Here is the input.
Amino acid sequence: MKLTSAEIAQDLARLKQISVRHQAADAPLAVGMECVRGESQAVFTRVPDNLAGVYQLALEAPELPFLIYQQERFSYGETYRYALLLAGALARDGIVKGDRVGICSRNNPQWCVAYMAITMIGAIVVPLNAWWQSAEVLYAIRDSGCRLLFADRRRIGNLQPLLVGDLDQLQLVAIGADNTDAHAEANPATRDLTSLVTSIDEDSARALVTTRDVQPDDDACIMYTSGSTDHPKGVLSTHRAIISAIYSWLFVKQVNDILRPEQQEPNPEFQPGILANVPLFHVTGSHAQFLASFLYHRKFVMMYKWNAEEALALIEHERLSIIHGIPTMTWEIMNSPRFEDADLRSLRTIHGGGASRPPEHLALIRKKFPVGTVPGLGYGLTETNGLGAIITGSFYDSKPRSTGRPVGPLTFIRIVDEKGQPLGHGEIGEICIRGPSVMKECWNRPQETREALRNGWFHTGDLGMLDEQGFLFVQGRIKDIIIRGGENIACADVEYALASHPDVLESAVFGLPDERLGEIVGAAAVLRPDAAVDEVALQRFLRDLIAHYKIPSRIWVQSDPLPRIASGKINRRQIRATCLHQRVTPD
Here is the structure.
């Protein structure tokens, strides 16, 4: 339902009143002021101090189904016990508070259990991109200083021959039961997660875990994200930062439920359930999907690999209520030949993030999905633990090009000019975010930390503007980052890989518009005069160097030098415009 400007204003006034009551001192999600890393910030005062406290919510509904993957099914109680035993084993074997422990695997229940166990004992979890090539994984392992790595057997098979020198003492633990390919042979240097769990009894594990004094502002996670440099950067976040994010989403839901009670079911037919359709090594997968599930006691149904037909089958079979992923996933579901025959009556929410959603997609959602299904869109970053802005329901219908208002009650957004001065409504500038969910620092990168965190505000590098009602409209990016279907790709990362080819003199990488993925990777490469390589050969060359999603879909090869601006830097904007013109009007 589309609202008039006056109706939006009325609803926003009601939301403000509800929000104030909802964060009162005696409310479950009470808000107060605390000093966080030297700054006074609004924080939740009655939520768990650490992630272990979040996991204990599992014991309130121990029999309910939780982690579901192919033939594996774990209840909330079973999951908690599994994680407790693993945490105890890690503590017994010498993993101490502050140690970094990596996870590199496709989605599976043991990924979730490992994440829980690592953070239960105050160690720092390091989720690694399972799509990376081995060299990229090794960089992150070295950069973070991992002592131990949980990985599926495919990743272990690829990595093990490369673990030399400073990495030859890295402990490996195999997880996942679905890898039956040639990489899955047993290796005496690799332990198995199951053997760790069965090596300790529950009382001993609990005794070891409860001795760890994990405070809200202790380090919890290093999540790697592509920046504008040649290597991904590690984003260090605390327990408070992650917990602030997941409870903020709960706060927004509860406030919206009060605003629009007609959308709620007093006695829902099915247990809440979410389709885990994005990788757990992303902040969306780990935070918004997995960790937030503890607060709702919802099923967490994992996919090995995205497939629209399989997604429909899982929604129908498991009676899932939430689809939450990049907007193109919803688009592919709606265009699946199975869509019209699927029973989707359990669905209640169609949420998206990681990329923009064209307004025509929103209209199609309203047309095709069951009546009462609420669409939504969010904006957030790894550096903010997924928090930023959110928009749902009638607000979204009324402002389909917006990504919403700041996620209350702890997150604040402002737009600044090049000098860092705040801009007014309707003015375009850099989006800055403040709140306890913002990262602590860029791991091992003090200069980048200083540049990103200024006067309590995180500078996103994204361009946007706020309208007179406080709705955010994202306009583009300052950084040279391509977002392909929710995956951040640094242009420099791809350019370094291209430069390693002996026939490439220089290159420029840029984003190309794509209806399905939002953006795809494009490149222009200058070749040596006698070079015999072409676009296909260069793409084939890159397969062994970088992840598949980083490989340019189009590479324009040329012999003329790339154009430059006065400072000598490559004029990426001009190159992109020229290539786009050639793409529309090919020779």
About this structure: The chain has three domains: 5-46+238-477, 74-214, 481-584. The two ends are 47 Å apart (CA to CA). Residues 5-46+238-477 form a domain with the Rossmann fold fold (CATH 3.40.50.12780).
